[in-house]
Predict the structure.
Amino acid sequence: MDKIVYSPVGIIHTGFHDKKDAPIQGVFAKDARGEIEIFKQYADGLEDVEGFSHLILIYHFHRSDGNSLISTPFLDDETHGIFSIRHFNRPNPVGLSIVKLENVKGNILEISEVDILDGTPLLDLKPFIPFFDHRDNAKTGWLNNPNIDMARGEPGKHRSK
């Protein structure tokens, strides 16, 4: 198979400069704010984006520490296969987050509920559409309620590892 190469369409700016400072999941960090700077040559692609309350961000984990097929996630003490967790040390360091869109100012998107490090290259963004993106009766595998309660903990619960 041919090599796959992507170029960023923008940069994500946040107040999180170290992995240990970023929230475990943005959904538990309602006040965590940031901006997405869409590069000028892609700005026309933002037409009508302001009508959506949330966006799906696809980005490059530019500060990944390499990759491992087995890892320990932040919400458990047991190891799991990399494809059953959301850890950033992946064979292809691609991240996915859902953020709340607060405002659009030209090529700048003001966002909240963000859990992404400052300077992260944005590969793509798509509108979050609840009708398409929600699944009834979805199972959560090894992730159980005590794990979720730990992440929920205090607003903006951060990584300890």
User: Anything to note?
Assistant: Confidence is low (pLDDT under 50) at residues 154-158. Strands lie at 10-14, 33-38, 54-60, 70-71, 80-81, 94-105, 108-112, 120-127.
